[in-house]
């Protein structure tokens, strides 16, 4: 998943559109949400908030000490097979879009990636994207929401494919 995203739409209409109960107050527009912050997530039947990132319990380093770093990405090809992710629940993160950067250190350009029609995108996992980053979020279509949240792993795996051609627009971001 990208390191930054935005969502300017209110949560209530999003929850209503997907038939979800909104269980958290709306924090208002998020122009630059980052790992470690509280973000809106969709779970079966409800929308709530959670801290962005996971500390993988049971992971140890080469010296046998617990690993306490926060993980914000999982590879779509291994998320269901790595023991680090055993027992985790699938969720959906509604976003307006995300940011990627190009250029060299100190001279980077921030790019904003969003749906062509300025609609909500639904992040599930990560996969390939062009020159901005070699990985990108798996974008779900509304009819895939239940399958991702509650379906078996084999069928959910089939959803982890690149976004359809022409779905996204890329423009230079005004944020620094």
Features:
five-stranded antiparallel sheet, mainly beta, hypothetical protein yedk fold
Over all CA atoms, what is the radius of gyration?
Answer: 16 Å
Enumerate the strands of the largest sheet in spatial order, edge to edge or round the barrel.
3-1-9-10-13
Proportion of residues in extended strands? 25-35%
The CATH architecture assignment turns out to be Alpha-Beta Complex
Question: How many extended strands?
Answer: 13
Compute the separation of the termini in Å: 20 Å
What level of helicity do the residues show?
10-25%
Largest sheet: 5 strands, antiparallel
Counting structural domains, the number is 1
What is the CATH top level name? Alpha Beta
CATH-defined superfamily? SOS response associated peptidase-like
The average pLDDT score comes to 82
Discrete helix count = 3
Give helix and strand order, one letter per element, not per position. EHEEEEEEEEEEEHHE
Q: Which regions have little confidence, pLDDT < 50, spanning 5+ residues?
A: 130-134
Shape: globular
Structural class, from helix and strand content? mainly beta
CATH fold naming: hypothetical protein yedk fold
Structure, explained:
With 176 residues, this protein is mostly beta strands. It has a single domain (5-172), classed as hypothetical protein yedk fold, CATH 3.90.1680.10. Helices cover 10% and strands 33% of the residues. It is built from 3 helices and 13 strands. The protein has helices spanning 11-17, 145-150, 153-157, and strands spanning 5-7, 21-22, 30-33, 38-43, 46-51, 54-55, 70-71, 93-95, 97-102, 109-115, 121-127, 136-140, 168-172. It has a 5-stranded antiparallel beta sheet, with no helix packed on it. A hairpin with a 6-residue loop joins strand 9 (97-102) and strand 10. It is globular, with a radius of gyration of 16 Å. Mean pLDDT is 82; it is low at 130-134.
